[in-house]
C-alpha cells in the first residue's frame, strides 16, 4: 500500500489494477477519458491489456470476450456512451458473465439508466455510487468481487467531480490476476474442454439438433437475478436522523455536499438529517424508511430533474411527504458542473423546505 495525492480517475484506475483487472477497453468521452488513459499506462506493466476501441459498442464487446475467458475485465464510458452499451449489458447479465462497468456521468442524469438499464429482458445490475475518491478506491474491489460472486455486470457510478478531484488515498499494489472460474472458456474446441458457447442463449458445447431451451435458460437467469437482488446487502451512509424533522436524501458527489450542509444546520439547531445511498441497486429501502420514521418530511436533492425520488417514495411508502428539491446543474459543456452544486444553494433549498413544512 502507498498513500498518494491523486486525481479520482487515476485512483480508480489504480484500484482496478490492484483488484486484479487485466483487461480494459473503452472509447474516449469526457469525463471518462482520463480513466482510459490511466489504464493504458498501468495495465501493460501489470501483465494486462488496455484497448482504445473504435466505439463504445466495440469496447464492451472486447471486454465481454475477455471476461468470458475468466479474466477480470472492465469497460466504461460516460452516460451517452453507456447508452450504446445497454444491449450488451443486458445480454451479459443473461449470459451470466461478470464485468465491471464504469459510468462517469455528466451530472446525475444517468440514474434511471444505471439502476433500470436500457437493455432488454429481465435483468438488473448492482450499482455502487461513491461520493469521494477514497470511497471509490474502496468500492472498486467490491465491484469486482460482486461481479464474480453473482456472475453479473456491476456498475460503478461516478461523475466529473469524482474523476477530477484530487485526494490522498491508499493505493494497493497489483493483485494476482487469476480467479478460479470453472465456467469460463478455455479455448478448447471439443473433447472434455469447457463450453465453446457462453452467450445470452446459455452455455453449451454445440447445438444439439433440437435447439436451445431458451425459456429454461432465461428462467434460471431470472432466478439468479432475484437471488442477487436479495443477497447483496445494501450500503448506506446516514446521520442525524434519530430526531430529524426533515431527512434529506442524496447520492454520489451531491450526497457529500448535502452531508456537509446538514452538519452545519445541525450545529445551528435545525433538526435535519441525511441519508446517502451507496448502493443504488439494491436500493437501501429499509434504511431510508427507518430514517424517515418520525420525520415530518423527506427531501431529495439530485443533479437532475428527479429520478431517485421515485425509489425514495417507494421506500417511504407514504409515511410522510417526499419532495424533490434538486435541479439540473449544467454549464455550456454539459458536464454537470454548474450552480446547483453549491453548498449555500443546497442550504437555502433545505431551509425553504423546513419553513414550508412549519
Account of the 3D structure:
This protein is an alpha/beta fold and 358 residues long. 41% of the residues lie in helices and 20% in strands. The protein is built from 12 helices and 16 strands. It has helices spanning 8-18, 33-42, 56-68, 79-95, 111-115, 133-150, 160-164, 214-231, 252-267, 285-292, 308-316, 343-357, and strands spanning 2-7, 23-26, 49-52, 73-77, 99-105, 127-128, 153-159, 166-171, 197-199, 202-204, 236-239, 246-249, 272-277, 279-281, 297-300, 322-324. The strands form 4 sheets. Strands 3-2-4-5-7-6-14 form a 7-stranded mixed β-sheet, with helices on both faces. It has a 5-stranded mixed β-sheet with strand order 11-13-12-15-16, sandwiched between helices. The longest helix has 18 residues, at 133-150. It is globular. The protein starts with a strand and ends with a helix.
Question: What keywords describe this structure?
Answer:
seven-stranded mixed beta sheet; 358 residues; 20% strand; 41% helix; 12 helices; alpha/beta; five-stranded mixed beta sheet
Give the N-terminus to C-terminus distance in angstroms: 51 Å
Provide the low-confidence segments as ranges: none
Tell me how many strands there are: 16
Q: What does the radius of gyration come to?
A: 21 Å
- Oligomeric form of this entry? single chain
* Outline: globular
Order of helices and strands: EHEHEHEHEHEHEHEEEHEEHEEHEHEH
Structural class: alpha/beta
Strand order of the largest sheet: 3-2-4-5-7-6-14
Main sheet overview: 7 strands, mixed
- Total helices: the number is 12
Quote the average pLDDT: 91
How much of the sequence lies in strands comes to 15-25%
